[in-house]
Specification:
single chain; alpha+beta; 4-stranded antiparallel β-sheet
């Protein structure tokens, strides 16, 4: 796991812990960039509702996020820039996962569907 992924995992764990303790649900994705000197965190406010799941692409260059806003968003890990919004679910998206080759992203929704995005 790269330093960026380790830092992001710590942020995500902290967010989950805060949620378990009754904190408000965030509708942001935090993308971290770590260097030898200091980490940088890029808060991304692209979702209009709470984020339910995140998944790193196998090459570590893209982060996918799922949300209660019924979308999946793809983020560039290096800059934190929004690359693409995937729409198509009719209810909230509760999970995302990449195939091992990184060419396909699966999203699962409360609409009882799984969509495959290439």
């Amino acid at each position: 796991m790269s330093p960026i992924q380790k830092l992001a995992a710590q942020i995500i764990f902290g967010t989950i812990l805060a949620l378990a303790m009754g904190a408000a649900i965030w509708s942001a994705v935090l993308i971290a960039q770590a260097s030898a000197d200091s980490p940088e965190i890029f808060p991304q406010l692209g979702h209009s509702s709470g984020v339910t799941s995140v998944a790193w692409s196998p090459d570590g260059k893209t982060l996918a996020s799922a949300s209660y806003d019924k979308t999946v968003k793809l983020w560039e890990a290096g800059s934190g820039q929004l690359l693409r919004t995937l729409s198509g679910h009719s209810s909230f998206v509760n999970s995302v996962a990449w195939t091992p080759d990184g060419k396909t992203l699966a999203s699962a929704s409360d609409d009882q569907t799984v969509k495959l995005w290439e």
